[in-house]
Structure formats: C-alpha cells, structure tokens
Amino acid sequence: MTTNLRIAFLPLTDVAVLAVAQERGFAEEEGLSLDLVRTTSWATLRDRLVYGQVQAAHMLAPLAVAVTLGLSQQPAALAAPYKLNVNGNMLVMAKDFAAALDPDLAGRLADPLGTAHDFAAAIGLWRRKPVIGVVHRFSSHALMLRYWLASAGVDPDRDVVLRVLPPSLTVEALHAGEIDGFIAGEPWGSAAVEAGLAETVAVGERIWRRGVEKVLAFRQNWMEENPETVDRLLRALVRAAAWCDEPDNHSALADLLAAPRYVDQPADLIRRALAGEMVNRAGEPAIPNPDFMLFSREATPFPWRSQALWIYSQLVRWGMVEHSTDSAARAGAVFRPDVFRRALAGSDVPMPGASMKLEGAVHSPLAVGSRKGDLTLGPDRFFDGRVFDPERIDDYLAGFVQLR
Amino acid sequence: MEFGHSMRIVIIDDSGLRATVLEEGLREAGYDDIHIVPPRGAFVARLERMAPDVVLMDLGSPSRDTLEEMLSVSRALARPIAMFVDQSDEAMIGAAIDAGVSAYVVDGLRKERVKPVLELAVRRFNAFARIQAELDEARNALSDRKVIDRAKSILMAQRNLSEQDAYTLLRSSAMNQGKKIVDVAQALITASDLLGGGL
Questions:
Q1: How far apart, in whole angstroms, are the C-alpha atoms of residue A44 and residue A49?
Q2: Residue of B nearest to A177 (CA)
C-alpha cells in the first residue's frame, strides 16, 4: 500500500532532497508517493500547509517559527523535524553599486566584515537609499542580511529599503531597476550574475558558516497523528540527502531540477550551487566553496533546537516579536529533534547526543558525542565571532550595539 | 444604495479578463467602489493610497508576499488585515483555495458583510477558469484542424489523392494505429519535413 503525501515547494535549488526522494525511488522504498506541489509565493505555500491542502512544505525556517508565534496571518503550531539544507544563499548587487566595493572578488567574499564596512560607505555614494530585495521578512536570507548590515552600523530598517519579492521575480526587478540588489536562494543569484546585471557581494555561508535554511514543516497536530508516515518520510529524505551530497550525482541532480516542474532554470546555473563552484561575476572563473550548500554531511538534517532559538533571537532583535519566556519556548519547540531521533533510530545515521548546542563555537571540524556512528561537525562560526548560547538569549541580544 | 455595499474593493490581477469577470459580478451585486490594480511596479504604493476594505488576489500570483509585507508594515492602513473572513469556516476556505482566491480584509469588518464578496469571487474565479479551459480547447481544436489540413495537402500532392480520400486515409491510419487523427497528421508532417517533401 502506497501512501500519498502532498508537499508544497517553491522553485529553488534546495528543493533537491524532496525531488530526489520522489524521482530516485527513495520515497517508494518507504511505501510513499510524493506529490510535489509547485507554488510561486511563500504566502501561498504557508496557506496550503496551514489550511491542510498539503501535509508538508519546503519552508523557510524562520517562517515556520513566525507562523507558530502568530506573526504571519493565521496562527498555527508548525513542527520541523527535518532540515532540508544548510546555506545556499547569495547577496548580489547591481554592478554599479558593487563597483564601490573591493574589486577582488575572492578577497571581498572572504572578508564579510570588511565588505560590510565598504557596503556601508557605498550606501552614501549611491543615488538613492539602496533597495535590496529579500524573499520574505521571515526568511533566513533576510535575517542574515540584517545581521551582516548591522555589523557595520547599518540599520536595515532605516539606511536601506528591504523590498519583499518572490525569488522568481528578482532578476526581472533588477533588470527593471526596481531594486539595486537582492539576497535569495539559488539559482536566482547566479541567474542575475549570468545575465551580467549583478555580482556577488556576500555569500550566506560566509556570514554564518552553517546557517539554517529550509526545513520540512508539518502542522504539528498532523505530524503527531501520523507518526508512522512521518518516520517513513524522514528515512526516505535522509537517503535522498546523502545522494544529493555525492559529487558524482551533481550533474544528474542539476538536470533533474532544471525541469519545468521543479526550478525551470538552466542546469548549468543550478549545478554551480550544488558543486560549490560559484561564478560571482559574469565571465570570470568560479571561486570554489565546497560548503556553499549542504544536504547531508555533518548531520545537516538534524534540527538543533538552538537553531530555532537563534532565529527567535533575531526576530526579537528586529522588533518582530516581543520577547517572553513563553514565546521563546514555543519558538524552540518548532524544531523537533525528538521526532528525527525516533524516525532514524534503526538506521546507521550518526545521531547527535544533544538537542542544543552553542551556535558559532566550532572553528574547525570537530568530532562530537554521537549516539552511534562518527559525527564530525563542520565549522559553524558567525563572521563576527559571536557565539549564541540558547540558554542566555538576553545576554546575547544585549551584546549587539544598539543602532537607534 | 444600502450601507452594506459602501465597501472599497481592490482586485489585484494580471489577467485583464479575470479581473473584468470579477468586477462585473461585483457590480451586478451592487458593489460600486471597485478598482483593478495589476501587480506590477509600484502597485503597493497605489494600493496604500486607495485604503481598501477588501483586497482580492489570485492565490497563484507570485506577488502575494509583496502584498502581505505591505499589509504588515503599512502605516496608512492602520488596522491589521487578516486573510479569509471566517477562519472557522473550513468549507469556505477550501473553496477559496481551490478556486485560487486569496482575500485580505480589514480587521473589524463584519464577516457577514464580507462573506458574500468572497463567495462571489470564488464563483467568478471558477467561471473564469471554465472560460479559460474552453478557450484553450477551442484554440487547440483550431490548431488541430490546421495540422490535419496540412497533412491532407501533403497526401494530395504526393499521392495524387482527392481531399476526401486524403482525409479517409488519415482517418483509417489513425484507427488502425489506435491514435488520434491529429497525431497521425503531425507524424506525417514531421516525416515529410525530414524527407524534404517540400510542402
């Protein structure tokens, strides 16, 4: 008996694990058939999930937290027992704007702090307040952009205009001069670079080296009522993710995602993010970044509760939610390592022993306590060296310079 | 005009036809403060100036995130706006999502006042989808006929057949192969092109 599941997604490279689970037989091995519902806005993806038109969704991690806290239309308790990827975003700016930054791309991208300061200076030189496209206020991209700008004293709500637009419209808006740059998931940054409209200014992976990106989100009550189906899906996704991380599979994966029913963009652009070979200025050679986007290694899918709490800390920081013990608890509870552990209990997947960790404390690959198998965590530093202790959110927030 | 109808409704839509179909329906029902705004350029600023009570938008529009952002930060629209009228009316929500209608309503507007608008929007969106499907069908039928006509003329020229005989040949081949006539005709045209039939 095959169980059908409807899962909503947006056309982005990081839908890879879901697409592969369905197309390469990993879902079928678990008796599942995934009906992947292509959606063009996060609002519609959210509504389909909240109102029960789909059972799960490829969701921005901060959006799952925001919906649960009642910050994005109809409140609903969502649960994320699985992370679909880590990183995969780029900030690209119009070539004229980028001309005020370090012309050496390798140097520019390797030094986010220096580039943030150059960016701050460039704002004053620009003909208007720079308009930067973000895909959603509750996106990892927007939170990283805010974090990065603020490190150089730029107030993202005062010194620049953040304009919300869906990833698929970013390149067009840049071309029309409606925005001066944007931060989005791939392949949209690459598409703007390839069109000769923009160049890379910052890479998500350099801002937070292991930044949370998309999660698999369920309505919490549906997830609790269907544990067996959820477990089967998670097992299928873990195997699909391992397939996606395998370098030999990147070309086939890019071809698959290029299809109109998924991303509908050229395979070459999609392959860049998968292989970590980003072209940052049209016509120049790629600058290798093997950690540009992760699906599987270092226990990427494991939903550390400390990461949900980091997202929460940023929502508080930017005045999107009022800080309270109750809100923090509800935000942290969106990530469900307990469900991940239950689903993968019988597998050989390395399983972290803890559910929370300090975020930003690992400087070089670190072997950590694991219930089974060997688990090495990759470096997860924030570029400014701050460390997030999920048990001391107030102290963490107090450490940021007040911009106003 | 009764008080219940003095509601400003903005339709955000890229398809001129669908917006018109909806607008007509609303006017027939007695609503007369209706504006259509395509989701392009500075549409958000326009919308803000209009201060609508109800905003109707295609659920499939990629601009919904832009609209929602405006609704959440707008100072001009002081009151919060919520999607769908009655969150407890699941049948209504289901019908709206199926029809592709998303609605934003000024909080505080009584739901009995807004419900008829939403129901009408759902009916009109569904009607539009039917019209669209019929149009597509008609368009396909037209192009099918062109393909069959071209295949007929190839047969008439190369096999020296009358038009009637050419058609009969196409039809019997289709029946023998268990295919549609248009598919057989298309295959014939492709083959003829490849072989340089010159027609």
A1: 9
A2: B41
> Does A239 map to a domain?
yes
Identify which of A333, A346, A343, A338 has the alpha carbon closest to the alpha carbon of residue A227: A343
Tally of CB atoms within 10 A around A319: 8
Å from B179 to nearest chain A CA? 27
A238 and A252 part of one domain? yes
Same domain, A198 and A231: no
pTM, 2 dp = 0.88
Across chain A, which has 404 residues, the per-10-residue mean pLDDT values are 95 97 97 97 94 96 97 92 97 96 96 97 94 96 97 96 92 94 96 97 96 97 98 98 97 97 96 95 95 95 98 97 97 98 91 94 86 84 96 96 81
Chain A, nearest residue to B101 by Cα: A44
Domains of chain B in start order, with CATH, are 3-134 (3.40.190), 139-194 (1.10.10.10)
Closest partner residue to B66 (CB to CB) among A73, A74, A164 is A164
Chain mean position to CA A236: 21
Are residues A81 and A152 located together in one domain of the fold? no
H or E element that contains A118: helix A112-125
| Partner residue opposite B93 with nearest CB, options A41, A42, A51 | A51
**What are the strands, taking DSSP E only, across A108-253?**
131-134, 161-164, 181-185, 198-203, 214-219
Contact A293, A84 (CB under 8 A): no
Q: Which domain holds residue A70?
A: 3-85+212-274+292-337
The answer to whether residue A283 is domain-embedded is yes
Q: Is residue A231 within 8 Å of A343, Cβ to Cβ?
A: yes
CATH code of residue A26: 3.40.190.10
Inside any domain, residue A256: yes
Residues A24 and A71 in one domain: yes
Radius of gyration of chain A (CA): 20
Rg of chain B taking only CA atoms, in angstroms? 26
Nearest CA to CA, how far is B166 from chain A (Å)?
Answer: 38
- The total domain count for chain A is 2
Q: Which residues of chain A neighbour B72 with C-beta distances below 8 Å?
A: 137
